[in-house]
Structure formats: C-alpha cells, structure tokens
Amino acid sequence: MSWYLSLPLIIPFTTAIIAYLLRASPAGRWVSVAGSGLGLAASIVLMALVLDEGVVAAQMGQWAAPFGITLVADLLSAVMVLITAITGFAVAIYAMGDVTEAQERLGYHGLFQVLLAGVTGAFLTGDLFNLYVWFEVMLIASFGLLVLMGGREQVDGGVKYVALNLISTIFFLMGIGLLYGLTGTLNFADLALKVEGVENQGLLTVVAMMFMVAFGVKAAVFPLFFWLPAAYHTPSFSVSAVFAGLLTKVGVYALIRCFTLVFDHDIAFTHTILLWVACLTMVVGVLGAAAQSDFRKILSFHIISQIGYMILGLALMTPLAIVGAVFYLVHHIIVKANLFLIAGVAKRLTGGTEVYQIGGLYKYAPFLGVLFLIPAFSLAGFPPLSGFWAKYIIVKATLDIEMWFVAFIALAVGLMTIYSMTKIWAEAFWKNHPDGVEPRLSGLQNKWAQLLPIGGLAALTIFIGINPEPFVQFAEASAAQLLDPTDYITTVLGETP
Amino acid sequence: MEQLLSVLIGALVAASVYLMLARSLLRFLFGLILLSNAANLTIFVAGRLTPGAPPLVPDGLDAPAGVVANALPQALVLTAIVIGFGLFAFALILAFRAYQSLGTLNTDEMRVAEPEDPKS
Q1: Could you report the per-residue pLDDT of A243-271, keeping only the tens digit for each?
Q2: Which of A13, A123, A288, A426 could form a disulfide with A301, with the two C-beta atoms 3.0–4.6 Å apart?
Q3: How far apart are CA A376 and CA A166, in angstroms?
Q4: How much is the pTM?
C-alpha cells in the first residue's frame, strides 16, 4: 500500500495542470474544487492507513533509503496532510466567491493547487534536501499568488515577503550542505542514527542553529517575523487565508520534525533558545496585534503570537508539551484560516478592513457575527472551543515542570488575545457603520460559496471543542512517535537499527 | 583545495552581506545571488573534493574502481542552481515591477503596505 503515499501529491499537481489549461473558462474553478475534494478523500484514506498500520514509508523509484527519496507518513505527517486538504477544500470553495475572473485567467487555481502540493510534499517527505525542494515549490507558488493582479500594495508587500524568504531558503541550503559534510546522509531516519556518531558535536549544534534560523523565518518567530505582517494583509482573502493557515505551520512542522528527530543531541542548549524565542514570539506578536487597527493586520500579528505557543510546546520537550504542540497546530490552522475568510466577507459587506471605518455587522448580519465569535473565542482559548484545550494542555505542561513564569506569559498572552478580538468585535460588529452602510448578507454575491466553508470550519472547531478526547488521544500517540522515533527509523530504513 | 574554496565562500558571504545591507533593492538582489552561490559551493566542498577522478564505472564492473568523486553533492548543487535561478528571475521581475509601480528601489521608501500613519 506504500504507493498510496504519492496520491496526495499527484492529485493536486494533476488538478493544477487541468485548472491551468481551463483557466479562461468557468470550468477551471470547478476543477479546482473537485481536485481539492479528491485530495481530501485521498488524505482521509492516508490517515486511516496510518492509524491502521503505523508509520508508512515509500521509496520513490525503488531506490532504497537512505540513497533514494523517501516519502513517509507518521501520525503527525498524516494529520498535517489531512488538515491541509481540509483547508484547501474550504478555500477552493470560498475562492468561487472571492477570486476575480481576471485573476482566474492569470492562473489563480493552478498556482493554488501547486501551493497545496508543495505544502503536502513538505509534510510527507523523509529527506532533508527533498524538504528544501518542496519548500521552493511552495514558495514560488505563494510568490505568484501574492502578486497576482497586484497593485502597489501587493508589490510592496511582495518585495519584503520574497526577500526575507529567499534568505531563509539560502540558510536552509547551507545548513543542508554542512550537515551532509558532517554525516554523509540527508535522509531523516538515517540522520537520526548518524548524528550520534559525529565527532564534532559543537559543529553539529552550529548546523542546528542554521536550521533553526531557516525554519524560524518560515515559521515567523521572533525576531524573524517581519515579512509576515508586511505581506499577509495585501493579497485576496482566499490567498491570505491559505497562507495564514498553512505556510507558517510548515515552518513549525519542520522545526518539530528536525528538533525531535535529528537535533536532540544538546537539548539543554537548543531547546532553551527555543523557549526564549517562544516566549518573546508570543508577547511581541500579541502586542503588535494590539497596536493594529486593520482587520487582517490584527489577525496577522495573532498568527505570530500563536506560533509562539507551538514553539513553546516543542521547547519544553516533555511528552505533554509535544501533545500540546500537535493539538495546537491542528486547531490553529482551522481557526486562523477561518478568521481570514470571515475578514473577506466583512470587507465585501462593509467596504473596508480598517476596523474604525467599518461597522454595523452585528445589527445587519448577525449570522456572520456568530460565525466570527466561534473562531475568535477559540483563538483566545474560551471553553468549550478547540483553542481552550490546546492552551490548557500547553499551560498544564509548563506547570508540570514548574515553569511558573512561562505559564504566566502563556496565560497573559491569552488575555491580550481577547483584547484585540474585542477591538474587532466592538468596532466592526457592534458599532454602527460610520457612513451609514447597512451590511446585509443578502447583498453578498455567491453568498453560499463564501458562507459554507466558514460554517464548515466553525463546525469543526466546535466539534473538536466539545469532543476533544479522541483528538487528545491522537495527539498523545503522535507525540509518543515523535519522542521515540524507533518506528519511524525502522520503517524508513527497513531494518532494525 | 578545500581551504582555498572555504576562503572563497567566506569572501562571497562577506560581499553578499555588504550588498544586502544596502537600501537599494537591486543591490540586495545582487547580494542574494552571491549568497546563493556561496551556499552552492558549501554543498560542493562539504561533499569532499577528489580532483581528477570522475565517478565512472569501467566496463565489466558494477562499481567504480578506487576512490572517485562524490556525485551526490554535484546533483544537489545542480538542483539548487536551477531552483535558485528560477527564484532569482522572479525576484528580478518583481523588483522591476516594484520600480514601475512604486517609482523607487529604495526599500526605506517602500511603505505602501505598511504606512507609518495607518489612519491617513
């Protein structure tokens, strides 16, 4: 069944080609939706397969690991692929009410599918250099989406996004070169075995720091996040939703993968740095959000502060903390993508995203108000929504090892999150529109294409919130795999080490 | 030979950092291409250098006889060059578009997406 691993990659690439060829006709968007739906089905089957058989690995072109390219799915990879497909499906539907025909003619749907393929590939690969290639696939597609039909704002944000991401890419590449020089391999499983035998452990830590910087830029952690608030509020709403949901999380995933599997030789040093980075990311992100007044800029800074929680889980490196990080990843992607989709509806109803210049949404579109409150409260960590459990596990993990100050920061940042959500609520929803506009949902074009994905993602948030048991158990199993990678290594290398 | 290439990599990185600290976007891009070349050389040197020994398999054998050059880093570098070229081409066009629509290549003046006074 191992051939099955390539399906979640083949489907978006095929869809991308067909959607690109049909870009001038309205059929293109349906191809995109159908392809995303197929991808979702494939990733559900992959998930079932991994739950059933444990870690699954496939060697591309029959070149045995560690020489060939390996695709491998453990529980973390499988759930990330699944959540990518869910987000991709939701955004593909939403795009029918958001993306203009001019953007479609330039190949929006093709680029979007390539982006999904790049993200999925990054989650599935078992090889460091291959991870670099998937990063590039993802990056070039995101560059294209960011500046597609762009005006001055998009080009301006795009320049910063492109520049800083290219630097991170080169750091990653240099790290790969040095790590290869030290160990002679680039296969994750093989690396996990070989790093112990490296004589110069100090140099290995240096290489680890290069990877931390490279993935840190992608994950937008403090002090490497400046490209994110410069760019994420500029493109069309479906693009920024999929960016917000998925792109930074690929960086977090790469950090988790590398710093549990490969670079666990000097945890006292590397993970202490991660701990500081996590705390500062949380605080700076949420303070940045408090200073903003644009719907999407507030949300962009919240991405940064939430990334801090996930890095915190990784930095603590206790079983419970990793459980929290995995749970947080899944919860965050759903909630964050949803909030950006809602921002899009709010913009179309009220004519802007600057919260002081819009309003009246609660009075004339109360349904949208409800849809906003669900992910907003979930983000801030209100029970019984998914964010409550995610935060609860992380904070409990810090309390368990008596890091009172870190726990205090995590809780205080949660409180600050509510503050800026309240700002959006009070300004955009509660007060009347300053220009007397009556933002009614009935005035929305392609109403259901926009509201269905929002409602679906909100329902998923509630479902995880009121029924967290299976998800926590899943995260526990996933964390156990991350902390004891024996299964992963034997499955990939096909022998007992 | 390794030492010589290491010094060259150091010089490339130093030059690229100098260029990338400039305000001009074009200088930044030149720095970027130097840095990516430094990265490519790093991979090349990290695979160890074996001059004058191409990794060819002689007739009648299954594996090359004796010590030959490591072909893997070269394959990696080739991939990295192609990808880097594509990204750089995109970045150049973006810089050109930025100059057309923003009228400047000075990154300090690029404040359209993040205006200093958001309310104006």
Answers
A1: 998 999 999 999 999 999 888 888 888 88
A2: A288
A3: 32
A4: 0.93
